[in-house]
């Protein structure tokens, strides 16, 4: 497939200034995509854009990956109801280094160039910026932005001049990259459309040149209707210190059936034939979660490497009962303790009391009701009585689960 066909099949054709997307199938162009170092890691939402960028590179276009050392010092106000807390230069430097390393892992083996907008802003004085940028941007254009209207309304929290000017900084990035590297396209998240269009307008007004924007569609969890990329613990990060590789793997394994086709197309590089084969097997036996398992393998391998996949699958095997919990070694047990609640017990202890202690059912009465309804499992087998016996424990431990989802499990160990 050529690029325009690939993007259509993967569901990545969304907002763009191109009147004919077949232009992407012609001569190679230079484009850029950027991430602000407002945090020390990208999230799953950033990964959707990164995977689309990979398609542009694989089809011959030249990528400039921007780490926003300058924009990160201000913070994008779009979508925020209150002023951001400003980060220090040291924080920004650490975050830039972390995001740069994630760029290198995700785009490993592909050609790209990393740029930092702090490099062209650090020596620019205020009067130069006002004359060379501010003079060419109409106030009406800036004031019409939805987030500005919201922040300036009676119910809003106001907006500082600094955050109000953020769009000018990002627009100048596009102008600079256009002048220095002949970058004619910005790839962005759907929430960055307004900022990106400002760059297109600035290039047209100052240099009378044509530039374009291509935005990534917002990925929605079809089961909940909410933005995809959140777990019960919050955002799903690419940094293993913030979201462990096992948590990351299990996030994908637990993906909703309604959306798994879209996730395979957006977040993996699997070809059309492979995806269609996986979906056929998934529809035939959805309980086996064949599509979700392959999805988890592919994305975890990309972000964390082969060893992380092997370890995450080992932990998951114990949680789903594919392996007896008594066989888990101490390293695997330590990871399991991070993933699910734990409790101490003794032989003869009340199962419902232990369940309540873990917080899974909410209360002892909730646990008792679930037990009577056959919705409590011990070591993957339905529990029949409210008392633990020595035979329930394997090497001094057992797994108890509420319902059928293994993420609603707890590890119980003999005191």
Radius of gyration of CA atoms, rounded to a whole number: 25 Å
State mean pLDDT (0 to 100 scale).
91
Beta-strand percentage range:
5-15%
CATH architecture annotation of the largest domain: 3-Layer(aba) Sandwich
What is the strand tally?
Answer: 12
The number of helical runs is 19
Sheet having the most strands: 5 strands, parallel
Give me the secondary-structure category.
Answer: alpha/beta
Q: First CA to last CA: what distance?
A: 60 Å
What is the CATH superfamily classification of the largest domain?
Answer: HUPs
Number of domains: 3
Overall helicity: 40-55%
CATH class of the largest domain: Alpha Beta
Tertiary shape: elongated
Low-confidence stretches: none
What would you say this structure looks like, in words?
The chain has 415 residues and is α/β, with parallel strands linked by helices. The chain has 3 domains: 3-216, HUPs (Rossmann fold, 3-Layer(aba) Sandwich), CATH 3.40.50.620; 230-319, Tyrosyl-Transfer RNA Synthetase; 338-414, RNA-binding S4 domain (Structural Genomics Hypothetical 15.5 Kd Protein In mrcA-pckA Intergenic Region, Chain A, Roll), CATH 3.10.290.10. It is built from 19 helices and 12 strands. It has a 5-stranded parallel beta sheet, with helices on both faces. β9 (376-378) and β10 (381-382) form a beta hairpin. α12 packs antiparallel against α15. The longest helix is centred in the first third of the chain and has 18 residues, at 89-106. The chain is elongated, with a radius of gyration of 25 Å. The mean pLDDT is 91.
């Amino acid at each position: 497939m050529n690029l325009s066909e690939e993007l259509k099949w993967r569901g990545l054709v969304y907002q763009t200034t191109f009147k004919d997307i077949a232009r992407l199938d012609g001569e190679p162009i230079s484009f850029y995509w950027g991430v602000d170092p407002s945090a020390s890691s990208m999230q799953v939402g950033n990964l959707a854009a990164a995977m689309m960028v990979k398609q542009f590179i694989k089809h011959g276009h030249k990528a400039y990956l921007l780490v926003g050392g300058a924009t990160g010092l201000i913070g994008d106000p779009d979508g925020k109801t209150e002023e951001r807390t400003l980060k220090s230069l040291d924080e920004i430097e650490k975050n830039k280094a972390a995001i740069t390393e994630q760029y290198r892992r995700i785009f490993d083996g592909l050609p790209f160039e990393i740029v930092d907008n702090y490099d062209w802003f650090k020596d620019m004085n205020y009067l130069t910026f006002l004359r060379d940028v501010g003079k060419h941007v109409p106030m009406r254009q800036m004031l019409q932005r939805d987030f500005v209207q919201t922040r300036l309304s009676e119910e809003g929290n106001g907006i500082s001049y600094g955050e109000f000017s953020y769009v000018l900084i990002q627009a100048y990035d596009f102008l600079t990259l256009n002048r220095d590297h002949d970058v004619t396209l910005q790839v962005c998240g759907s929430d960055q459309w307004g900022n990106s269009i400002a760059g297109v307008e600035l290039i047209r007004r100052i240099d009378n040149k044509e530039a374009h924007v291509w935005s990534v569609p917002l990925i929605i969890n079809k089961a909940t209707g909410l933005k995809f990329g959140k777990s019960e613990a919050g955002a799903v990060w690419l940094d293993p210190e913030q979201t462990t590789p096992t948590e990351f793997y299990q996030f994908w394994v637990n993906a909703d059936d309604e959306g798994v086709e879209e996730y395979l197309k957006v977040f993996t590089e699997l070809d059309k034939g492979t995806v269609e084969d996986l979906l056929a097997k998934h529809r035939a036996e959805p309980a086996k979660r064949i599509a979700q398992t392959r999805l988890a393998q592919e994305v975890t391998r990309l972000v964390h490497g082969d060893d992380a996949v092997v370890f995450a699958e080992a932990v998951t095997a114990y949680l789903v009962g594919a392996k007896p919990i008594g066989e888990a070694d101490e390293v695997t047990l330590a990871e399991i303790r991070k993933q699910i609640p734990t409790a101490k017990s003794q032989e003869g202890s009340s199962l419902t009391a232990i369940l309540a202690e873990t917080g899974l059912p909410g209360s002892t009465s909730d646990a008792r009701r679930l037990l009577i309804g056959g919705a409590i499992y011990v070591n993957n087998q339905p529990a029949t009585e409210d008392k633990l016996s020595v035979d329930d424990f394997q090497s001094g431990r057992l797994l108890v689960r509420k319902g059928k989802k293994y993420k609603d499990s707890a590890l119980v160990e003999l005191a």
